[in-house]
Amino acid sequence: MDISPVDPMDPVNRVDRVDRVDRVDPQLASDERTTLDEFLDFLRATLLAKTDGLDADELNRRLLPSTLTLSGLIKHLAMVEDYWIQSKFLGLPDLEPWASAPWAEDRDWEFHSAKDDDPVALRSLYLAACERSRRSLAGADLAALSAGTDRDGARWNLRWILTHLIEETSRHCGHADLLRESIDGTVGE
User: Fold this and answer.
1) 3-state class (DSSP) for residue 53
2) Domain residues of the chain, as ranges?
């Protein structure tokens, strides 16, 4: 399954730019919501910085014996954004490409299928998912409970979901550090 570039005129998928994202350090002293939002945006920009300027072959390079690739990380984190914010928090139906993905045949489909996706389309997919998350959560209270539930019927509050997104994104940015260094020697934040 191939992903197509995001239509910049579609308000659901609108992103300001696909090529570069400003990486802004979080403020040193701000309220809880601003701190969470700024750290998540910092990590989102870090992932994109780690993949900036790479072609499809480079995005799909692995560090053996792992099968992890930068393209897989981008697509996985786009799925994570939509899963936690659109599906779990807001209770909306799955968006494409997630809705029609063959999860029953491959529970890691987003990682495995990313090798077939255009690098610009992958970055657009991720940027659009992040922007949907930002817009969807604008003004939402950290104590607000999710529409979706876990297996036991419990609901997550937004504070937990944002903290989880920070954890997930930061963990994968660490993977991206190693992968990018192995490709062309680029190191640093």
Assistant:
1) coil
2) 53-184
Rounded distance between C-alpha atoms, residue 112 and residue 19, angstroms: 24
pLDDT, one tens digit per residue, over 50-78 is 999 999 999 999 998 999 999 999 999 99
Question: What 8-state DSSP symbol labels residue 145?
Answer: E
User: Which residue has 């809880």 as its token pair?
Assistant: 32
Task: Residues 53-184: name the CATH superfamily.
Answer: dinb family like domain (1.20.120.450)
pLDDT digits 0-9 by tens, 149-182: 999 999 999 999 999 999 999 999 999 999 999 9
Burial 72-88 (b: 16+ CB within 10 A, else e): bbbbbbbbbbbbbbbbb
| 93 secondary structure, DSSP code | P
Long-range contacts of 179-185 (CB under 8 A, 24+ apart): 179/50, 179/61, 179/62, 179/63, 179/68, 179/69, 179/70, 179/73, 180/50, 180/51, 180/54, 180/70, 182/61, 182/63, 183/54, 183/58, 183/61, 183/70, 184/54, 184/58
